[in-house]
Amino acid sequence: MISLEVFLRLLDLGGTFVFAISGAVAAVNRRLDIFGILVLSFVAGTVGGITRDLLIGAVPPAALKNESYLLTTVIAGLLTFFFYKGIDRLRAPVLWFDAAGLSFFAVAGTEKALEFGLNPLMAALLGMVTGIGGGMVRDLLLIEIPQVLRSDLYAVAALAGAAMVVLGQMLGLPPGPSALAGGLLCFGLRFMAIRHGWSLPVAHLSARRRAEIQGEVERKEKERR
Amino acid sequence: MISLEVFLRLLDLGGTFVFAISGAVAAVNRRLDIFGILVLSFVAGTVGGITRDLLIGAVPPAALKNESYLLTTVIAGLLTFFFYKGIDRLRAPVLWFDAAGLSFFAVAGTEKALEFGLNPLMAALLGMVTGIGGGMVRDLLLIEIPQVLRSDLYAVAALAGAAMVVLGQMLGLPPGPSALAGGLLCFGLRFMAIRHGWSLPVAHLSARRRAEIQGEVERKEKERR
Amino acid sequence: MISLEVFLRLLDLGGTFVFAISGAVAAVNRRLDIFGILVLSFVAGTVGGITRDLLIGAVPPAALKNESYLLTTVIAGLLTFFFYKGIDRLRAPVLWFDAAGLSFFAVAGTEKALEFGLNPLMAALLGMVTGIGGGMVRDLLLIEIPQVLRSDLYAVAALAGAAMVVLGQMLGLPPGPSALAGGLLCFGLRFMAIRHGWSLPVAHLSARRRAEIQGEVERKEKERR
């Protein structure tokens, strides 16, 4: 039987792998070369955790102390490079693995932040950052507004899971069960979002204001050229 | 009567609030969902200070140690979400509050960097970063070239205020008056820039070179698609 | 005769200067004002090293402790501002200086990471980041996909040079010769890439998938407006 520690490490590398695949696929779609693909794999898989570690003062970050993260993202990148067609067809299952990765990252990130003495609210925030940071930087490197800022219930699912962990700690519950509850809550919310298209509201804009903004954006695009 | 410390804390949160409003308005304009709006509020309000704290080794950054920053930016985001029309009408006064926020951030950022032992020149630079960092990352997340790099006297106003603080310290003046002088200098420069359209020069380009660049940019835009 | 330390410092500032020129030229091309030009100079010249220092815990980063980096990048920015036409004509020699800067940064970055106790593989990665980080953030600030992710042999040259340094240390060789070998390897690879157009492969995409992606990208561009 494998120990709890090994199990958690496997989950962590599993999450890294799935996120890395998302980075590699995005890189192939934008015609980056093999080096660009590997960079996007590494970024998508590890930047959430690296950001958390920088912010809590855990340097060098875990992803730079242990080679297994780099190795995991390189494998994900190479697989995508050579078998893009096959991986692209797996979009539906990858979505579920991604939800699992998000859940794990949110919970584990929160626990690490609590360990480093952050207060509960901020620890939950950093758990969320662990889950969504990699995807945000992946999108920025490809010059796209981060999906997580405009799409369905993604960051909120991570935040809810993270909050559950924090609540458990505040109530003095043992860490195992509250981690599990947090992970399940995050995964469940992602499930509902994917299945039922749950999403968050956008602000109301009058037609006139919308036309104005349209004009401003077009002016800016023009200036950029 | 309130103490100096409370007064400074109020100024700090006030600056955070005004900057957060700018982030939230930009997010609404780009049709982000409510989560995206809150992220942009938080980023615009706190990333300048977070960047400074990371660079001087003050981890976890102040904005992650104390919940009042998060709370302030959440309130700014929600107000913008629900009362966008009203807030959008307040553009002119918001500009003045923004100038006040910039002045405070530049001065307070410089003082914190000096406290952490940075040399005077670099402390002034970090004061400026405290003032402009949030707006820069706000623009990057929305895939726009940061306004501060191409607009009127903004960063230079922050830098001048920061330099005044540093100069005061080098001359052995008490910190209070030189902070006040720095803040007033920054605010005054912003006032002139807004009122009289003061701006910085751009480099001269021959018509031929300009046409060449135009061509390159269009080629790149095409490649991106 | 100058000492080794002075020689290395000169190399370091030389690399910073060449990279800063690349930032300033890009800023002029995009019509940023003089402040924007100086920011891009500083970013292109120092952000690679600053990122490395943040990740290994060397705060404040070297580029913020010592004013000579800022001074170097300001000179590069002002020269570009006033003599853009002349500097723009020097593109071919600048390419060679850039290769020299990259080689030096990759080698020196790796050595600093090893000094701070990172394991060999990660030290090489951080050497590469030292070399390419500035250019990546330069491109991002101008809202362009980083060149290094899609162009000829650039990052790989830096990585090869960095790997040579690490290999030398693992074999117990004295640091001088292996640094020299690493630098020469990086420079040689850049030489071949520039002269013979060496580049890295991109993944194969079927025509159908390519058309699909094209459609998605156009939809996203539209949404952004």
Give an overview in words.
- Chain A is an all-alpha fold.
- Chain A is built from 10 helices and no strands.
- Chain A has one domain.
- In chain A, helix 1 (4-29) crosses helix 6 and helix 6 packs across helix 7 (120-141).
- The N and C termini of chain A lie far apart (61 Å).
- The model of chain A has no long low-confidence stretch (mean pLDDT 89).
- At the A-C interface, helix 1, helix 2, helix 4, helix 5 and helix 10 of A face helix 2, helix 7 and helix 10 of C.
Describe the protein's topology.
The structure is a homotrimer of 225-residue chains.
Chain A lengths: L3 H26 L4 H23 L5 H4 L1 H16 L1 H6 L1 H25 L4 H22 L13 H16 L4 H22 L10 H18 L1
Features:
homotrimer; about 220 residues; mainly alpha
Query: Total strand count of chain A, please?
Result: 0
Biggest chain-to-chain interface with counts: A-C, 40 and 39 residues
Main sheet characteristics of chain A = none
Helix fraction of chain A, binned, reads: over 70%
Summarize the structure.
Three copies of one chain form a homotrimer. Chain A has 225 residues and is mainly alpha-helical.
